Amino acid sequence: MSRKEKVIIGMSGGVDSSVAAWLLKEQGYEVVGVTMQIWQDEEEEVLEENGGCCGLSAVEDARRTAQLLEIPHYVMNFKADFKRFVIDYFVSEYLEGRTPNPCIACNRYVKWEALLNRSLEIGADYIATGHYARIRQLENGRFCLTRSVTAAKDQTYALYNLTQEQLSHTLMPVGSYSKEEIRRMADQIGLSVADKPDSQEICFVPDQDYAGFIERTTGAPSQTGNFVQADGTILGQHKGIIHYTIGQRRGLGLPMGRRVVVTEIRPETNEVVIGEQEDVWTDHLLADRLNWMSVPDLTEERSASAKIRYNHTGTPCTLQKTASDQVRVQFHEPVRAVTPGQAVVFYDGDCVLGGGTILK
């Protein structure tokens, strides 16, 4: 009798990863559940509100699910990796006037790289997650992510940075189902997490006060500075650049008599530039820190669709390489609030072509 292939599944305690574990077991894999401890030091009262992908309560929910599914469950400590690749990066990007995407960094360096390396060391063939995405091997031999069957839950944008090695050892069983189908399955199996709410967008800042988190982490209060127009005319004083992002309209506290927006952040002079609504529309951007997925590299100008944020539906564009690790994205129609530090992800139909970090 041939050996069952072993899968280490990251179990967050949520409904998606719980059903993913059940699906894999049904498909005949030897399934082992792992909950990753990455930042958990929360107070007891936070547990009920933030029982998402990283909370302490996730461990107990995952353990109960594993017991019901009759699979082993372990807790692995990845706090050092999480601090280095996610929290330190998150803080430094905001201090540099950029708006980071910590979930993308966590996926690439913690949920995949750290977990996959440890899983392969203990004899696993694959790792698996409850992400809404699918993996396909193309005719050119490369692996690519394709959108999940439900556009409303598609998570390929946050996974564009995965490597070929990581994709070749990854299974994503829930990408072929809608959220409603996953919850129905969980209910039919008898999982206690069937109706559990989805996790917070950024798990380690449960109150969504990014500036407060950065101040507590660095031990330094925000440095106030000037709101200015593009020409340098001073309009007032801001609370510190970590409080602002491109396209922001609320919380500016400027008596301008009309709605104005943040159009630029200048960390070198500690200035936040204020402009009009039309100033945050553009038809191009530059991106670096590229990761190509369905192709090994961009060798010629080509058409694609690009998403500049998670909830952006995508805009047709033309891609042109301008340096070894830089691409110019020319949109066929203007897009709003291109934000340095955020990801831009390129699609060829439903397949992820690649992506990078918005430079300017």
Architecture overview:
- It is built from eight helices and 17 strands.
- It has 360 residues and is α/β, with parallel strands linked by helices.
- Strands 12-15-14-13-16-17 form a six-stranded antiparallel β-barrel. Strands 3-2-1-4-7 form a five-stranded parallel β-sheet, sandwiched between helices. It has a four-stranded mixed β-sheet with strand order 9-8-11-10, with no helix packed on it.
- About 3% of the residues have low confidence.
- The radius of gyration is 22 Å and the shape is globular.
- Helix 1 packs parallel to helix 3.
Quick take:
By secondary structure, the chain is of the alpha/beta class. It has helices at 15-26, 44-49, 56-69, 79-95, 102-121, 164-168, 179-189, 210-218; strands at 6-10, 30-37, 73-77, 126-128, 133-137, 143-147, 170-171, 225-228, 234-238, 261-266, 271-275, 281-292, 302-307, 315-323, 326-336, 343-348, 351-358. A 6-stranded antiparallel beta barrel has the order 12-15-14-13-16-17. Strands 3-2-1-4-7 form a 5-stranded parallel β-sheet, with helices on both faces.
Q: Which residues form runs of ≥5 with pLDDT under 50?
A: 42-52
Distance between the termini: 57 Å
Number of helical regions? 8
Rounded mean pLDDT is 90
Estimated radius of gyration: 22 Å
Secondary-structure element series: EHEHHEHHEEEHEHHEEEEEEEEEE
Question: Which short descriptors sum up this protein?
Answer:
single chain, 360 residues, alpha/beta, six-stranded antiparallel barrel, 8 helices, globular
How would the blueprint of this fold be written?
Blueprint: E1 6-10, H1 15-26, E2 30-37, H2 44-49, H3 56-69, E3 73-77, H4 79-95, H5 102-121, E4 126-128, E5 133-137, E6 143-147, H6 164-168, E7 170-171, H7 179-189, H8 210-218, E8 225-228, E9 234-238, E10 261-266, E11 271-275, E12 281-292, E13 302-307, E14 315-323, E15 326-336, E16 343-348, E17 351-358
Helix pairs in contact: 1-3, 1-7, 4-5
